[in-house]
Design goal:
about 80 residues, mainly beta, five-stranded antiparallel beta sheet, 5 strands, elongated
Length: about 80
């Protein structure tokens, strides 16, 4: 049975607000997990660009209700 020894997640991003309703974000993210069992270990790192879009709908009220839509493009790249 595989167990997780350690995991980590690092991201850097920048956003832009087009108007009161639409904003976007672009950045880069890396996620790593170290698995182990009695037979050995496996280190996996997933990294790549991230893209995000937020569209806010006010629906006639003063407080906005957010609808988030995000696309993450991250190829799986195991360490050797």
């Amino acid at each position: 049975m595989w167990t997780v020894d350690i995991d980590w997640d690092v991201a850097g991003a920048i956003g832009h607000r087009f108007n009161d309703r639409v904003s976007s974000v672009i950045g880069y993210r890396a996620l790593g997990v170290d698995y182990s069992n009695d037979d050995g270990f496996l280190d996996v790192v997933q990294e790549g660009p991230i893209l995000g879009l937020v569209v806010r709908s006010f629906m006639g009220t003063k407080s906005p209700m957010d609808f988030d839509c995000a696309l993450s493009l991250q190829p799986l790249c195991p360490e050797t």
